[in-house]
Amino acid sequence: MKKIFTFAILGGLLLVLLSSISEIPPLGEEKNPSYNEISEYYTAESAQDTGAQNIIAAIITDYRAFDTLGETTVLFTGIAAVSAMIGISHHKGKKEDQEHHG
C-alpha cells in the first residue's frame, strides 16, 4: 500500500513538472522571463544603485544577497554533513582495525 501511495505522489509530481515545462516559452521569444524589465533595470542602474563596477558582483551581493546567503547555507550544510559522515566512517574503520589487531 505504501508503494502505491508513493508512486501516485511521484506520478502527480511528474504531471505537474511536465505541464510546467510545456508552458515555458521557447528560448529567444520576447515573452521569455529572461527578457523582462528586471534584467534591463539591472544593466542600466546597477552601477548607480550599488556603486559596484562589476554588474555580476552587484547582482549577487546587493540585489540577490538573501538568495545567495541561502545557497551558501545549503552548500555549507551539505559539506558539513558529508564531512561528518566521512569522519564517522573513518573513525569507525580505525576502531574496527584496533579490535582485529589488538
Automatic annotation (TrEMBL):
InterPro entries with a match to the protein in the record: CPA3_Na-H_Antiporter_A, MrpA_C/MbhE
Originating species: Proteiniclasticum ruminis
Protein name, per record: Multicomponent Na+:H+ antiporter subunit B
Domain annotation MrpA C-terminal/MbhE: ranges: 32-82
